[in-house]
Amino acid sequence: MQEAVIDINHLSKIYIMGEQRLHALRDITLSINRNEYVALMGPSGSGKSTLLNVMSGLDKPSSGSVFFNGEDITKLSQKKLSLLRLKNFGFVFQMFHLVPTMTVYDNICLPVLMDGKTVDKSFFEKIVETFSIDKRLNHMPHQLSGGEQQRVAIARAIINKPTIVFADEPTGSLDTVNGEIVMGLFEKTNREDGTTVILVTHDPGFAARASRQIKLVDGRMAD
To answer: How many angstroms separate the CA atoms of 54 and 187, rounded?
Structure first.
């Protein structure tokens, strides 16, 4: 029997802009299992990034609930929510979000140090060798190619051995070759490390490589 790591119940998100109400999510109910690799798909404005942000605790829903390991994270204080994200979630975004004044090594280790832990040296070495960034550890982000920066961002996302990695259009600013490399890294961490991966992508080819595809249209789940 598969174990749900994320349970979403009747989730809605409404943005109020003056007198206008934008329904970004409409009554979403779904479960994501531990160790699953899920792709969220849909046209621009369909709500896929909003869903990712709400289920990861980066944004609050207007109604409904999000359970992580049986705990409703929508009811947590901001402090407890931040701690939960730090310990359990990894994030990868299209624009990398590396700290420009820190070396590659320090960028990767940042979540571990923020959590007050010691870096697992063997796991670190495995990651940087697998990602082919082991020769770039003393470089600054601006000295890296776009593909290298995204690989550093993924390494940072998984260094704390998170339960879930949330990735929002992680190949959107990469060329085809680097996009393939990055997608292979997500598949590898899912397969070998048992990390649940939840990916937002507009690329049907990349989505097809996930174990399940969830399509959104106008804020609703589509068949």
So the answer is: 23
Contact 192, 117 (CB under 8 A): no
How many independent structural domains does the chain possess? 1
Q: What is the CATH number of the domain that holds 168?
A: 3.40.50.300
Instruction: Tell me what the pLDDT averaged over the chain comes to.
Output: 94
Report yes or no on 43 lying in a domain: yes
Domain contains 211? yes
- Phi, then psi, of 194 in degrees rounded to 5: 75, 20
CA distances from residue 110 to 102, 118, 191, 222 in whole angstroms, order as listed: 10, 11, 24, 38
Which range of residues forms the domain containing residue 96?
A: 36-60+76-222
Q: What is the pLDDT of residues 60-104, one digit of tens each?
A: 999 999 999 999 999 999 999 999 999 999 999 988 899 999 999
Of the CA atoms within 13 Å of residue 53, those in its CB half-sphere come to 15
The answer to whether the beta carbons of residues 38 and 211 sit under 8 Å apart is yes
C-alpha to C-alpha distance for 167 and 157, rounded to whole angstroms: 9
Residues in the chain: 223
Mean pLDDT along residues 140-164: 95
Q: Distance (Å, rounded) from C-alpha 157 to C-alpha 92? A: 6
